[in-house]
Fold this protein.
Amino acid sequence: MSKPLSLTEENYLKTIFSLSDGQDNAVNTSALAKQINIASSSVTDMLKRLGEKGYIHYEKYQGVRLTDSGRSIAINIIRKHRLWEVFLVDKLHFSWDEVHEVAEQLEHIRSKKLTTRLYEFLNKPKFDPHGDPIPDENGNFPDMERNMLTDFNEGDTVTILGVNDDSPDFLKYLEQLNLKLGSILTINTILSHDRSMELRNQHNKTIMLSYISCQHIFCKKS
Amino acid sequence: MSKPLSLTEENYLKTIFSLSDGQDNAVNTSALAKQINIASSSVTDMLKRLGEKGYIHYEKYQGVRLTDSGRSIAINIIRKHRLWEVFLVDKLHFSWDEVHEVAEQLEHIRSKKLTTRLYEFLNKPKFDPHGDPIPDENGNFPDMERNMLTDFNEGDTVTILGVNDDSPDFLKYLEQLNLKLGSILTINTILSHDRSMELRNQHNKTIMLSYISCQHIFCKKS
DNA sequence: CATCAAATTTAGATGAGACGAATTTTTTTT
DNA sequence: AAAAAAAATTCGTCTCATCTAAATTTGATG
Ligand SMILES: [Mn+2]
Ligand SMILES: [Mn+2]
Ligand SMILES: [Mn+2]
Ligand SMILES: [Mn+2]
């Protein structure tokens, strides 16, 4: 039985996983520093330690990759984060822009039984309030096919499946436009000069979205 | 806005509150050391720091008392601890001997809104699964009148209101005897040589409890 | 009330996690 | 391929929370 990881270490592993897109891509020191909001010298320190403990493969100047054990820890943190987000929205009626900050704390609670029971209490959800997939007990993510809104064409009708940006600002913006998971939109026009989209919702209301915004919305054809 | 307390500092304040029985009794360095399971020199260090920050009144060699701000922080931690225990038992079907350890972690989650919403979700409970009172938003504990089982006499009929010992061992022991909050017992005999009690439950079953066990059970006359 | 034991504090160290400044390595530009 | 820029690492230092061992204070006992 090895000593449990510190909260800080858990956050590094989780962040490495996210920045490597769940793949085996190497992650930069500076990308981590930026994401965690810390000096890059501190990141280098921590990477050495995590490397020695066997959670990551770390070669000076070469970036970092998770080992199997690091990866499985990261996925477990993400599982807990997303389950708590579901709890906060479904049971405690938080709005989708309020949950991330609290889930950042709750994701570190250590109790196998708690995670299992919460999962059941929430009816084994597959997606969190932002449409992100929740890995199962074994760390497997549910299948899903989704693309950025920017990948579709004029005339396509799509359903919103998720967002790529959990920031309260963006989420409140979407809420205000009455855009949520499940909303159905038809692409009227894609403006060529800035690639912004003119969309039509189910009530025939027109909505304009910048290219940047469209990059933060996941959809499927419907 | 002062920097939030560390988890360690919160635990000190909570423990000082508990050891002073919620009154203004001075608490010893060594009592704290024992309870927190730490060297007493470490306690001295921490008390200095907490004193400088204004959460406690600390005079060398004279023990420690909470200030108003320290007290209110302590009560808030206890409120959260007990609310989470209710959640774990009522919603996630934990048994009363499993919840304390997890609540020790959950009590440190910082979100005013979370506490408020949880309180409402649980229907504003007044007592936790061990019969301990849950302070309200303003830090006021619900009124309650209760005495140790050892305070009653032969022939008295009492209702169990709570326990004084949250250890899994003791709680499992009670469960096994089918004793729980609300159980009604009549005191048949109090043995004079060891003050142990012979009790009768609602199904006319006889239960023997040692004096020590009786000291850990709170009751009211019924 | 002087002595001794217990409780408490002080002193000195350590490890984790953070920082900024200086240095080194890698990458990009001329 | 040299120079410049960017990225990453090393170095020295800081704070927090902890420890053990030594010194001090308190308070109990003869
Ligand atoms: Mn989130
Ligand atoms: Mn999410
Ligand atoms: Mn408890
Ligand atoms: Mn309790």
Notes: Residues B 82, 85, 128, 130, 132, 166 surround manganese (II) ion (ligand 4) (CB under 6 Å).
